[in-house]
Amino acid sequence: MRVYEKVRDGIWNYNGLFELVDAWVEKNGIRMVFKFKLTMTSEDRVKASPNTFKEHNRLIPSWVKQAVWKRDKGQCVQCGSMDHLHYDHDLPFCEGGTSLLPENIRLLCARHNLQKSGRIE
Ligand SMILES: [Zn+2]
Questions:
Q1: How far apart are the CA of 100 and the centre of ligand 1, in A?
Q2: DSSP element (H, E) containing 43
Q3: CATH number for the domain whose boundaries are 49-121
Q4: Å from CA of 114 to ligand 1 middle
Q5: Using one digit for the tens of pLDDT, what is the confidence trace for 21-35?
Q6: Would you call 1 exposed, middle or buried from its count of C-beta atoms within 10 A (0-12, 13-18, 19+)?
Q7: Cα(88)–Cα(29) distance, integer angstroms
Q8: How many CA atoms does the CB half-sphere of 52 hold within 13 Å?
Q9: Residue 21: which residues within 8 A CB-CB, separation 6 or more?
């Protein structure tokens, strides 16, 4: 199911895909209120449309990005630059490196990312 948040009249903000894990009815005075328990589906599943399927294992989950950003203090691990940072796979994805472990992801500035891989991601 899809969850929308009403921002104001006529404008709905798409909040991503949720899974309905539980639903029940509570009596609230004279009204019956439907309650739903929702969990956010994983980012991977949201992005796993046929077009992105090939790439989707390459995507770095946001929790990994947050962990890496915190660990590397928002700086290039080589020069400390805080500009034009990229998330870099220490062991390249094509060589079996994973996007799912913060240990294999680091922050590099554009210059060092370019030096390392020879291309801009
Ligand atoms: Zn750098």
A1: 23
A2: helix 43-47
A3: 3.40.1800
A4: 10
A5: 666 777 777 777 766
A6: exposed
A7: 56
A8: 11
A9: 37, 38, 39
Mean pLDDT of the chain, nearest integer: 74
What is the distance in A from the centroid of ligand 1 to the CA of 70? 17
Q: If you measure from the C-alpha of residue 106 to the centroid of ligand 1, how many angstroms do you get, rounded to a whole number?
A: 11
pLDDT band at 39 (very low <50, low <70, confident <90, very high): low
Name the residues around ion ligand 1, CB cutoff 5 A.
Answer: 76, 78-79, 81, 109, 112
pTM for this entry: 0.51
Task: Indicate the pLDDT class of residue 114, thresholds 50, 70 and 90.
Answer: confident
Rounded distance from Cα 113 to ligand 1 centre (Å):
7
Handedness of CA 78, 118, 59, 47 (dihedral sign): positive
Supply 103's token pair. 């240990």
Q: How far is the CA of 81 from the centre of ligand 1 (A)?
A: 5
Amino acid identity for residue 29 in this structure: G
Please state the domain extents for the chain. Answer: 1-41, 49-121
